[in-house]
Automatic annotation (TrEMBL):
It comes from Flavobacterium aquidurense. InterPro entries: ASHA1/2-like_C (IPR013538), START-like_dom_sf (IPR023393). This is Activator of Hsp90 ATPase 1 family protein. Transmembrane segments: none annotated. Residues 25-162 form the Activator of Hsp90 ATPase homologue 1/2-like C-terminal domain. Gene3D superfamilies: 3.30.530.20. The lineage of its organism: Bacteria, Pseudomonadati, Bacteroidota, Flavobacteriia, Flavobacteriales. CDD domains: SRPBCC_CalC_Aha1-like (cd07814).
């Protein structure tokens, strides 16, 4: 069943940025919680059949979320977020870095810089995301790794959680 909710995914090669605009049929408060509380994030952040597992999370400026995407054979792909700015129920910004289980960054893949903005109109909440990379080559590598497809699947998982 395909959703009629807005899902735009555009690549701005000139600025090494991906823009995603996604609607959710849920209140702003519920969508904000789903993006900022580890118990809910772990239910949708990884694309099926992967699962998200948060090791630690402090959602505050200067705080960090360390988590793994765990595959069907229990293989773990670790990342951390570092929150740089939080305006409650409006916007937050963070870097996202691939790492090991102790949060040592992977030197082969740089960080992504996320700017996530929330707005509500009637029964719908829109999440506007800009994800910047340090170079076009880095951006292309992430897209080649299946970022668009994986993130789309994860957002569809969030739809199911918000509907329940």
């Amino acid at each position: 069943m395909k959703s009629n909710l807005l899902m735009n995914f555009t690549v701005d090669k000139e600025n090494s940025t991906v823009h995603i605009k996604r609607e959710f049929n849920a209140s702003l408060a519920n969508v904000w919680s789903a993006w900022t509380e580890p118990e809910i994030l772990d239910q949708w952040w990884a694309p099926a059949p992967f699962k998200s597992k948060t090791k630690s999370m402090e959602f505050k400026e200067g705080g960090r979320r360390l988590y793994a995407m765990v595959g069907p054979e229990n293989q773990e792909k670790w990342s951390f977020f570092e929150y740089t700015s939080i305006s409650p129920k409006t916007n937050f910004k963070h870097s996202s870095t691939f790492c090991d289980a102790e949060a040592n960054p992977d030197p082969n893949i740089g960080s992504s810089y996320w700017d996530v903005t929330f707005s509500e109109k009637g029964d719908l909440t829109t999440v506007d995301i800009a994800i910047k990379r340090n170079s076009l080559a880095e951006l292309e590598k992430i897209i080649e790794m299946g970022f668009k497809e994986g993130f789309t699947i994860a957002l569809e998982g969030l739809d199911k959680i918000l509907a329940s």
